[in-house]
Amino acid sequence: xxxxxxxxxxxxxxxxxxxxxxxxxxxxxxxxxxxxxxxxxxxxxxxxxxxxxxxxxxxxxxxxxxxxxxxxxxxxxxxxxxxxxxxxxxxxxxxxxxxxxxxxxxxxxxxxxxxxxxxxxxxxxxxxxxxxxxxxxxxxxxxxxxxxxxxxxxxxxxxxxxxxxxxxxxxxxxxxxxxxxxxxxxxxxxxxxxxxxxxxxxxxxxxxxxxxxxxxxxxxxxxxx
Length: 225
Fold this sequence. Notes:
Helices cover 78% and strands 0% of the residues. The model has no long low-confidence stretch (mean pLDDT 81). It has helices at 3-14, 16-32, 42-75, 79-99, 106-110, 114-126, 136-143, 149-159, 164-183, 189-196, 199-224. It has one domain. It comes from Photobacterium swingsii. This is Cytochrome biogenesis protein.
């Protein structure tokens, strides 16, 4: 499997604390708001919600990956993808600085998605209250488009994946990395959040991403030169 898939999975795993902050409240709310007689089905709701979220990631990855692969094919050169990979490396570095709490520039990038999200969010509200686990699937698909710097960073890797399918798989790997935290909403959420919020843990992971981003950028620059 391409190393970008592993990198995407690690981004999701390491950014789980951010995921709990962005989507954890929503996941908790949908289980608390379910009918009393269905409280025993909370895991079904969570699973369907997260399945919908991952489907949205995969659709976005397929669109981005396919579009940029088409541009590269039409140009008859790999140069556009090399430039894009350099940008992806930059996004990885920005993400590492954000996760390590050294620089919060990624939050500025998230603001660009707010324009679209304002149009999408009302559609999610119309789906509430959820009457069955199956209803959590479209709800999760809508919330999958929530403006998120982690998603944007990973989409830059989907863009240079080389194909529609690879772009979709990169985003699937990212989504799978976020699952442990999102499925732990409730019973294990407090313990998991305590670990993920530990500054030393976050910075150790951030240094790994930083190293990968610098290495990728170095390779892209060498290909250009």
